[in-house]
Amino acid sequence: MIDFNIAPHTGNEVKYIQEAIASGKICGDGTFTKKCSQWMKEHFYTNQAFLTTSCTHALEMAAVLSGVKPGDEVILPSYTFVSTADAFVQRGASLVFVDIRPDTMNLDETLIEDAITEKTKAIVPVHYAGVACEMDTIMNIAKRHHLKVVEDAAQGFASYYKGKSLGTIGDFGCLSFHETKNLSMGEGGALFFQNNAYQEKAEILREKGTDRSKFFRGQIDKYTWQDYGSSYLPSDLNAAYLWAQLEMADDIQNDRMATWNFYNEALKPLADKELIEQPFIPKDCIHNAHMYYIKLPNLESRSDFIHYLREHGVMSVFHYIPLHSAPAGKKYGRFFGEDRYTTKESERLVRLPMYYQLSQADKEYVVKTIFDYFNR
Ligand SMILES: *Cc1c(COP(=O)(O)O)cnc(C)c1O
């Protein structure tokens, strides 16, 4: 059986976790957490990078820091993971789902402006498959309407839009290090922002509402409860795992890219015959090979395809059930305008096995099985 995903493991994870244990400090903001944040600041040119317990939690922090309040509206795609929505629902916001572009599966930037009302507070673009949304347009709309932009860059580690790292373009950027993402720490994420004015608020929010971060820097001699907060800092044990991955980030990314390119090249004849559709990468985007998906003609053919692959030992998966059609989506939001592509395209998409060190033989078997399916 060829798995759909296997959590990345590069070799030094256990060694670094042992080092964390030996240091006698395994709580948050230890040596490895600092190394990881510093790495991201240097590689992604972000002023601020806070390691968090998940991308969901990074989104929650971004929602609080954006000042989203009950009654506010937030614009987001319906084709996304639930966390994109949850973080804003938690603040009492109401969700306004805007349709996606069929080519990238990202928020259709040309539809956003019409969805803005006097209640709109933020736009939340999701960079699906690590392929950037049309950020220049989105930032321009946000600027003219005084809206915050929170990038859901959960899948966007080391992806770029016009040379900028995803997660560093909007007011806030949220990354994920869940085991299904390119780099992992089991559960974890990061919050990026460029405006240093948010630093103190972010530190307090992340540290249970206290100014303990200032205390550790020696800037104050005791810490107290300053504001609303929660606990968004991961254990240094998890950060130690991530550090081993960051050190090998190029290797992980190159390996995934080789798989992505292999699939893309090998499956091209099927796309030429219009049996499938392949991913589209706009020219301003450098992607990170987060996923390889293809599209079948419709829901029925996709189910048949997934079933055939599974029968022949290949795990492929689909996602997402559009949020606006889910019980919570109906309760907390509404779809703006016409659902031309969200439902239709989501029903056609299927993701092929993609993980670090997927073997050449396995990739070839996946492709062969797909050809067999179409040659039956
Ligand atoms: C994975 C993912 C998340 C959630 O990340 P966690 O780290 O598991 O909280 C949010 N949004 C998108 C688009 C994702 O793919």
TrEMBL record:
Pfam families noted in UniProt: DegT_DnrJ_EryC1
TM stretches of this protein: none
Gene3D superfamilies in the record: Type I PLP-dependent aspartate aminotransferase-like (Major domain) (3.40.640.10)
Tagged with keyword 4Fe-4S: no
Matching SUPFAM superfamilies: PLP-dependent transferases
Family: Belongs to the DegT/DnrJ/EryC1 family.
Protein name: dTDP-4-amino-4,6-dideoxygalactose transaminase
Naturally occurring in which organism (per UniProt): Blautia stercoris
